[in-house]
Specification:
GO terms for molecular function: beta-glucosidase activity. By secondary structure, this protein is mainly alpha-helical. It is built from 5 helices and 2 strands; from the N terminus they run H-H-H-E-H-H-E. It folds into 2 domains: 47 residues, no CATH class; 56 residues, no CATH class. The longest helix is centred in the middle third of the chain and has 14 residues.
Length: 111
Amino acid sequence: GRVLALKAALGLFDDPFRRLQPARAQARQRRPETLALAREAASKSIVLLKNDGGLLPLPRSGKRIALIGPWAQDVDNAIGPWVLFGGNDAGNDLASAMRAVMGKDARRVEV
């Protein structure tokens, strides 16, 4: 309670983005070191609970992969709502990323 009261007293809830500089923030999030840190954080945050039948890693060719659901080609949900600047060009949807990794041998099933 005291932390929230202090933040309220400092006016942080009145306009939390008043000091934000969009051009500066966007430039920072596109720096190579920022992108490398984001990639590292993402790779360390993914947890495989069980690899039944040695399914992973996925083969790069010869197999069909079904991407099922409304977000398979949705960049907004892939990058998440926490991206303030950059828009859809800041990320890839799952289907595009899988095609890029699997190359020309990829076969896609859309449902």
